[in-house]
């Protein structure tokens, strides 16, 4: 049990503290940082998917008036560490994927830099590339572990025996597409090396964590932490793609190193983001379910095949939610990777859970249909008393309440399909889950200054609401009005903070702020003097290891399919979530419906159309890579139940940044199936997959 | 982006002379497509001649009951014109189905039909493309063909290395409606003015995929005329796309039915040009527009259709989709007014 705060500011529907700045356009983002006399960098990218650069003719680029520097693998300085191959920019002639960085031009204007980059003539020794994922490749391998440190494979009981003995079995293969994060603000950096000898570097970088960003840069350039400052007050979206720095940050720092004393700006174009900023790997999920005729599972198994890059391994933990979601005596999960000549996959909103709840939640709907049981009832019948993976009791698990309340609000009862004029209408449901995580490192300072309480922590707000909710937590921990509290974030001059990832930010930074605030009160009482200051670490916060902490949810979809053309519309999307205490209903709702909208986008629209012959995403811009637009979103509602969880942290809160995208795509598929009878097992659900079944 | 000279001449005649004098010159109107291409390196002109303020912005009545759309009239303006909405609703609907409000405010009558294909390989200068770089080959064959042609192509799997291969589609919605309406294009060229039937403006790739239209260097569209339709003609535009807004057509249908029962039909998203369905029209001539008759007519039109294989199962779905959408569009036309 943790020492829960009494909520006073927490729970209030406060407006975003940074909202007005953003609406007025005065919030400064990395690329717009006002600096003296900036220069502009533009990358040169490989146009082959595998091979070696044999020569780069930079004469035409260098001859352009206003070009300041052209760097290639043949003349760029050697970096202190090339241990992380993604960050080893311009360190050698080898090309591991199409779009890889092989040079950079710095010039007086961005247009000139781009023109000069285009004028660099590259010669290659091109080799055949291998860039096509399939489940029957002979070279699939088991990684040592999968993302977030999870085991690659798990097994309990005997799935094969259970499948052989069961009254009903289901074996299906599902797949999710390749997706690109595509935050509105592209990956951008302004980099400045001080001209004096101590090599001080300032990076204004669009990042989900200034401290992790700095740590990576320090390692690559062989610098001490004190030699680098990273500043990032505002982020125009990240969705995981700015959680770990990508090669563009190292390239910007390298380019700026060529011009000490001169700030250099580098922003990726939208097209460049499709090869340099990470992406969600495509996944192939073979599901097995065994059940008795009443729907009680005796086995659940998921065998995942997905891709990584030969340059650097990233193993999405797709099979992880199957390990804990439903009660079943026999369970198995495996992950196998194909290492290909492709860009490097990475984090995208809810890595693991998002793709990993697609196959299982469609399979549960298929099993329910097979058994003639309501899909909500099927889930209720497989509700585990304790976490099946660890055997620990849940800190709180309100999946059933979410399903029941959602059913009530949505109007679930009654037939799941009908026809309305030219439209075939169906409804679907799926469960959501996301682990409640806390990072090991974060420190906060609380100071009394000019009659106000000022807290500092190097946290990040990527549109999530941290600027607004961290003062709410701090105010309650100090026992003061939230209007008297300022929280400063987004700068390595503030105490160390963890990455905004894994929906762990509020849990981690909030816990550190509570420790600091309580320490402040302990040291200085209720009547502090100006300048009094205390700090606190997250590792001093109460931590419960005896319970299994997860957030749960249920999502409901009404889908309409045009009987003539197969066009798909989703006029209603409703989610109910059990996410602990909601600290700010306004920002929380925004996170949840944002996640659900992104899940709808995954279901119907997003699809990085991979061209294996060329070795790149064919539709690499926002005209062709479709993201759900306003016209695609009808009535969208996010609700939460009044959930009290005394085990997670002093706020009683669970993460909410990612659970909204988990399960949505399955609910859409299940609704489209109800409407048309077509079970689309390979995302996205597009009209061509429905045409043959239409009347 | 390559630097270029920019000129804003005093009148259209001077604009034409400027372009004729510079072999690597282009006209700029709304810029919604050209400016992208300048950035991407798809267009690399030495001279950009801005005609935005030179051609007419007016939509004026013609003596025979038709309408003249000045080349600089915007897509938003034409879509909102009460005469267009009432007498040529297929055109208003097609315009509103295109792009976004912001883009329609910039895009012009003269520029819209001259926008270039959205083939992803055409727009990426690092991949071979016969349309962008003649003779370099076609990357689309067997690749990402979802938005590519099924009509007017020689084979289901053309030779990707042949210089004439191109399976791109024309992306304009407006142009599909204009093809169905037998619009007339007013052109000012080096040799003076001439009129080009809209259905003859765009061409199939033939042996030169780099050419989208029959216009020659220096030809400038000054206006597009809509001929009068017989009173009581009913028309509609139906666009089928992957999301509800701001997406190019997978396929689209422009249909107009005269009180005599004559169907005029054009298809979008299926060919290198807006596709006037003349075979279907011929099959139907003199027949009642029953569901079966329309089905048979569109089957005749699609008899030569060639599905293109490719990523995500290619584009074979377009063939049944066109048939279904034509039927739905004709069925959905507003009821005949009782006189």
So how many helices of chain A?
15
Shape verdict of chain B: globular
Structural class by SSE content of chain B:
alpha+beta
Q: Can you tell me the CATH class of the largest domain in chain B?
A: Alpha Beta
Low-confidence stretches of chain B: none
Dominant shape of chain A = globular
| Low-pLDDT stretches of chain A | none
Structural class of chain A: alpha+beta
Number of helix segments of chain B? 10
CATH H-level superfamily title of the largest domain in chain A: Aldehyde oxidase/xanthine dehydrogenase, molybdopterin binding domain
Helix amount of chain B, in percent?
Answer: 10-25%
Q: Largest sheet of chain B, described in full?
A: 5 strands, antiparallel
Query: Which strand order spans the largest sheet of chain B, edge to edge or round the barrel?
Result: 4-5-8-6-7
Question: How would you describe what is shown here?
Answer:
- The complex is a heterodimer of chains A (695) and B (339).
- In chain A, 23% of the residues lie in helices and 25% in strands.
- Chain A has three domains: 19-28 and 439-540, 2-Layer Sandwich (Aldehyde Oxidoreductase, domain 4), CATH 3.30.365; 33-127 and 182-276, Aldehyde oxidase/xanthine dehydrogenase, molybdopterin binding domain (Aldehyde Oxidoreductase, domain 4), CATH 3.30.365; 147-179 and 280-436 and 547-693, Aldehyde oxidase/xanthine dehydrogenase, molybdopterin binding domain (Aldehyde Oxidoreductase, domain 4).
- In chain A, the strands form six sheets. A seven-stranded mixed sheet of chain A has the order 3-5-1-12-9-10-11. In chain A, strands 7-15-14-13-8 form a five-stranded mixed sheet, sandwiched between helices.
- In chain A, α9 (358-371) packs parallel to α15, α12 packs parallel to α13 (505-524) and α14 crosses α15 (664-676).
- The relative contact order of chain A is 0.14.
- Chain A has 15 helices and 26 strands.
- Chain A is globular and about 75 Å long.
- With 695 residues, chain A is α+β, with helices and mostly antiparallel strands.
- Chain B has 339 residues and is an alpha+beta fold.
- Chain B folds into two domains: 5-49; 57-333, Uridine Diphospho-n-acetylenolpyruvylglucosamine Reductase, domain 3 (2-Layer Sandwich).
- In chain B, 24% of the residues lie in helices and 17% in strands.
- Chain B is built from ten helices and twelve strands.
- Chain B has a five-stranded antiparallel sheet with strand order 4-5-8-6-7. A four-stranded antiparallel sheet of chain B has the order 9-10-11-12, sandwiched between helices. In chain B, strands 1-3-2 form a three-stranded parallel sheet, with helices on one face.
- The longest helix of chain B has 14 residues, at 318-331.
- Chain B starts with a strand and ends in an 8-residue tail after the last helix.
- The chains are: A alpha+beta (695), B alpha+beta (339).
- Chains A and B meet through α3 and β24 of A and α10 of B.
């Amino acid at each position: 049990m943790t020492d829960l705060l009494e909520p006073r500011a927490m729970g209030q529907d406060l407006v975003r503290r940074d909202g007005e700045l953003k609406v007025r356009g005065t919030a400064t983002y990395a690329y717009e940082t006002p600096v003296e006399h900036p220069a502009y960098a533009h990358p040169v990218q490989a146009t082959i998917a595998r091979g070696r650069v044999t020569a780069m003719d930079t004469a035409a680029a260098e001859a352009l008036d206003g070009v300041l520097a052209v760097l290639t693998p043949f003349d760029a300085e050697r970096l202190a560490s090339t241990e992380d191959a993604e960050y080893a920019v311009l360190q050698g002639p080898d090309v591991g994927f199409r779009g890889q960085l092989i040079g950079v031009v710095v010039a007086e204007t961005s247009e000139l830099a781009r023109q000069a980059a285009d004028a660099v003539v590259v010669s290659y020794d091109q080799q055949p590339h291998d860039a096509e994922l399939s489940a029957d490749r002979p070279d699939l391998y088991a990684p040592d572990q999968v993302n977030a440190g999870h085991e690659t494979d798990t097994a309990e009981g005997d799935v094969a025996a259970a499948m052989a003995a069961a009254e009903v079995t289901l074996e299906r293969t599902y797949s999710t597409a390749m997706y690109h994060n595509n935050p509105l603000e592209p990956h951008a950096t302004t980099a400045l090396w001080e001209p004096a000898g101590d090599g001080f570097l300032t990076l204004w970088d669009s990042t989900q964590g200034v401290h992790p960003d700095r740590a990576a840069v320090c390692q690559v350039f062989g610098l001490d932490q004190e030699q680098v400052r990273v500043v990032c007050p505002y982020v125009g979206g990240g969705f995981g793609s700015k959680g770990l720095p990508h090669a563009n940050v190292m390239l910007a720092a390298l380019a700026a190193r060529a011009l000490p004393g001169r700030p250099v700006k580098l922003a990726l174009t939208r097209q460049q983001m499709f090869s340099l900023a990470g992406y969600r790997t495509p996944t192939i999920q073979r599901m097995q379910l065994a059940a008795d005729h009443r729907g009680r599972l005796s086995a659940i198994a998921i065998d995942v095949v997905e891709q990584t890059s030969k340059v650097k391994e990233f193993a999405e933990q797709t099979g992880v939610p199957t390990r804990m979601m439903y009660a079943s005596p026999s369970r198995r999960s495996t992950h196998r990777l194909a290492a290909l000549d492709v860009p490097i996959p990475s984090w995208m909103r809810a890595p693991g859970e998002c793709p990993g709840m697609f196959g299982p939640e469609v399979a549960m709907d298929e099993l329910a249909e097979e058994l003639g049981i309501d899909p909500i009832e099927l889930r209720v019948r497989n509700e585990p008393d304790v976490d099946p993976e660890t055997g620990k009791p849940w800190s709180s698990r309100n999946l059933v309440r979410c399903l029941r309340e959602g059913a009530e609000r949505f109007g679930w009862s009654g037939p799941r399909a009908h026809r309305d004029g030219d439209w075939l209408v169906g409804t679907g449901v799926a469960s959501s889950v996301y682990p409640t995580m806390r990072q090991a490192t974060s420190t906060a300072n609380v100071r009394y200054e000019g009659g106000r309480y000022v807290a500092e922590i190097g946290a990040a707000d990527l549109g999530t609401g941290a600027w607004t909710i961290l003062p709410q937590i701090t105010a309650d921990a100090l026992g003061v009005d939230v209007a008297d509290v300022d929280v400063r974030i987004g700068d390595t001059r503030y105490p160390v903070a963890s990455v905004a990832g894994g929906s762990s930010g509020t849990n981690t930074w909030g816990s550190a702020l509570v420790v600091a605030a309580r320490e402040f009160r302990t040291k200085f009482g209720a009547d502090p003097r100006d300048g009094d200051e205390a700090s606190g670490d997250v590792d001093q916060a109460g931590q419960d290891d005896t319970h299994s902490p997860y957030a749960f949810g249920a999502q409901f979809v009404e889908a309409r399919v045009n009987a003539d053309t197969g066009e798909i519309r989703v006029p209603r999307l409703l989610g109910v979530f059990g996410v602990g205490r909601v600290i700010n209903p306004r920002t929380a709702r925004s996170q949840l419906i944002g996640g659900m909208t992104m899940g709808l986008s995954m279901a119907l629209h997003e699809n990085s159309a991979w061209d294996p012959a060329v070795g790149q995403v064919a539709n690499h811009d926002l005209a062709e890579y479709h993201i759900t637009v306003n016209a695609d979103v009808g009535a969208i509602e996010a609700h939460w139940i009044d959930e009290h969880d005394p085990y997670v942290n002093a706020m009683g809160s669970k993460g909410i940044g990612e659970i909204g995208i988990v399960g949505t795509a399955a609910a859409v598929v299940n609704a489209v199936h109800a409407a048309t009878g077509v079970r689309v097992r390979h995302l996205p659900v597009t009209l061509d997959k429905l045409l043959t079944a239409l009347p | 982006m390559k630097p270029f000279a920019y000129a804003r001449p005093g009148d259209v005649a001077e604009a034409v002379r400027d372009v004729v004098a510079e072999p690597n010159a282009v006209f700029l109107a709304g810029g919604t497509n050209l400016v992208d291409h300048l950035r991407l390196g798809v267009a690399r002109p030495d001279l950009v001649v801005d005609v935005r303020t030179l051609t007419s912005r007016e939509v004026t009545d013609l003596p025979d009951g038709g309408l003249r759309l000045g080349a600089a009239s915007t897509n938003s303006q034409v879509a909102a014109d009460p005469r267009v909405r009432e007498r040529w609703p297929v055109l208003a609907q097609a315009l509103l189905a295109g792009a976004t409000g912001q883009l329609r405010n910039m895009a012009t009558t003269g520029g819209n039909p001259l926008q270039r294909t959205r083939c992803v390989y055409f727009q990426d200068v690092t991949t071979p493309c016969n349309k962008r770089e003649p003779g370099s080959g076609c990357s689309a064959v067997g690749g990402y063909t979802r938005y590519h042609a099924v009509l007017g192509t020689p084979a289901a799997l053309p030779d990707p290395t042949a210089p004439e291969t191109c399976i791109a589609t024309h992306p304009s919605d407006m142009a599909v409606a204009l093809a169905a309406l037998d619009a007339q294009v007013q052109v000012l060229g080096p040799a003076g003015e001439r009129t080009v039937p809209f259905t003859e403006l765009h061409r199939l790739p033939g042996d030169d995929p780099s050419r989208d239209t029959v216009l020659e260097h220096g030809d400038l569209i000054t206006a597009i005329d809509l001929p009068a339709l017989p009173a009581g003609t009913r028309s509609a535009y139906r666009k089928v796309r992957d999301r509800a807004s701001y997406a190019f057509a997978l396929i689209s249908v422009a249909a107009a039915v005269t009180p005599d029962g004559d169907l005029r039909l054009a298809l979008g998203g299926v060919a290198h040009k807006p596709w006037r369905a003349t075979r279907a029209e011929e099959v139907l001539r003199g027949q009642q527009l029953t569901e079966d008759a329309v089905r048979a007519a569109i089957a005749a039109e699609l008899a030569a259709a060639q599905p293109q294989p490719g990523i995500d199962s290619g584009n074979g779905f377009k063939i049944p989709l066109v048939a279904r959408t034509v039927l739905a569009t004709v069925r959905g036309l507003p009821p005949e007014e009782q006189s």
